[in-house]
Specification:
The chain has helices spanning 20-36, 71-83, 162-170, 190-211, 267-276, and strands at residues 5-12, 41-43, 86-96, 99-108, 113-118, 144-146, 149-153, 175-180, 183-184, 215-219, 221-224, 234-237, 241-243, 249-252, 259-266. The chain is of the alpha/beta class and 297 residues long. The radius of gyration is 18 Å and the shape is globular.
């Protein structure tokens, strides 16, 4: 890990349609603004090119997928080079006919694409029919080396799994990133909505604590109607946030507005936290074998 301060930015957006060029330009405008503020690293939300199409199982939506490399990677690579930043993006990847992934792609300044991560944990819930579209990732939990450090990039549903965060940290990730698309069913009570959001933020702050690394979470905002008649749609709850290595909230966005966050991460402090709270020193790796079992009968 480097030393000193690293200025990090994230973009929280609403998406109104499947006009990729318009959505890319919208992201590009925010990326430019963050770069002008001195950000060296910018993270976009999950599947930022289009509406969250997984509310319905529809084979037509496979037409939204992008090859890697392809037009999307070319567009964002140019942005990273133009603004001299490291950029984390999220794409619906067409790997081959009938084989698709939910993939985060990282660009490093003028180097172009320096790595990608394919979402490992794939949900299948009402309104989130991702197993229909995405094959589970096969690249493992490997951080991506960049000019600002080793980035542990994970995606949305991965954020509920401490194993994923731990394996990224064990491989040397300096910080964890979660491009995200999560929201409420409008039929949920306010009390249930509060519990869901609280659990979401708490589990990710816990990843920061347990691994002594900053956590950067970029969620989408806005309401997206379901294409299925009678379905309630999804109210994406925004509230993107950046947490420090003790889980402290350094910045948090609103629930219902498009906005960007900027934080100066203190990398020297992260190193000190690792020395003061030596969790990795005291792990009982001789007693954890059952973690690779589905269940302990």
């Amino acid at each position: 890990m480097g030393t000193g301060k690293l200025k990090v930015g994230l973009v929280q957006q609403a998406v109104a349609d499947n006009d990729k060029q318009a959505n890319w330009q919208k992201s590009a405008d925010q990326i430019a603004s963050l770069a002008l503020q001195g950000c060296e690293l910018v993270c976009l939300q999950e599947l930022h090119s289009t509406l969250y199409f997984c509310q319905q199982e529809n084979t037509e939506y496979f037409n939204l997928a992008e090859t890697i490399p392809g037009p999307a990677t070319e567009f964002f690579a140019q942005l990273a080079a133009e603004h001299n930043i490291v950029l984390i993006t999220s794409l619906f990847e067409k790997r081959a006919s009938g084989l698709y992934h939910n993939t985060a792609v990282v660009f490093d300044r003028s180097q172009g694409m320096v790595g990608k991560y394919r979402k490992m944990h794939i949900p299948d819930d009402p309104g989130f029919y991702e197993k229909f579209y995405f094959t589970p990732g096969d690249l493992g939990f490997e951080p991506i080396q960049t000019s600002v450090g080793k980035l542990g990039v994970l995606v949305c549903w991965d954020q509920w799994y401490p194993e994923a965060a731990r394996l990224m940290a064990m491989a040397g990730a300096d910080m964890l990133f979660y491009p995200t698309a999560i929201g409420w069913d409008r039929q949920d009570t306010p009390e249930e909505q509060k519990r869901q959001h609280g659990a979401w933020q708490t589990i990710q702050r816990a990843h920061a604590v347990a691994n002594s690394v900053p956590v950067i979470v970029a969620n989408r905002t806005g309401f997206e109607a379901s294409p299925i008649s009678g379905d309630p749609g999804i109210e994406f709850w925004g509230q993107s946030f950046i947490a420090g290595p003790q889980g402290e909230i350094l910045a948090q966005a609103s629930a219902d507005k498009e906005e960007c966050l900027v934080v100066d991460l203190d990398l020297d402090r992260t190193e000190q936290i690792k020395r003061i709270w030596p969790y990795f020193r005291d792990r009982r790796i001789d007693a954890y074998q059952d973690l690779t079992s589905r269940w302990r009968d």
